[in-house]
Write a structure and sequence with these properties.
The chain is an all-beta fold. It has no helices and 11 strands. Strands 2, 4, 5, 6, 9, 10 and 11 form a 7-stranded mixed sheet that branches. Strands 1-3-8-7 form a 4-stranded antiparallel sheet, with no helix packed on it. A hairpin with a 6-residue loop joins strand 4 and strand 5.
Length: 112
């Protein structure tokens, strides 16, 4: 029974930072690649970042390169997304994903 729980979202001003976390259970965490997605209202979910099993290989969408950093701590079954220099366009619901499983999402709102 797989569970993914995101946390760390909130309201921040433009230029601010947030750190999202995703805690996984019911899955062999260390053997799986993981990813972060985000979804704008009325739009389809889009890929933000991907990390392989031990964090040695990553992928970022062009829109977040240089600002977001994906990482993982296999001992804690946790994946992170450090978001710096946040922009209004980063406002969305952020989801973590392993295989075909998804968390419930955490809201990030960037506004002055």
């Amino acid at each position: 029974q797989v569970q993914l729980v995101e946390s760390g979202g909130g309201l921040v001003q433009p230029g601010g930072s947030l750190r999202l976390s995703c805690v996984a259970s019911g899955i062999a965490f260390s053997s799986e690649g993981m990813s972060w997605y985000r979804q704008y209202p009325g739009k389809e979910r889009e890929l933000v970042a991907v990390i392989n099993t031990f964090g040695h290989s990553t992928y970022y969408a062009d829109s977040v390169k240089g600002r977001f950093t994906i990482s993982r701590d296999n001992a804690k079954n946790t994946m992170y997304l450090q978001m710096d220099s946040l922009q209004n366009a980063d406002t969305a619901v952020y989801y973590c994903s392993i295989r075909t499983d998804w968390g419930q999402g955490t809201q990030v709102t960037v506004s002055s």
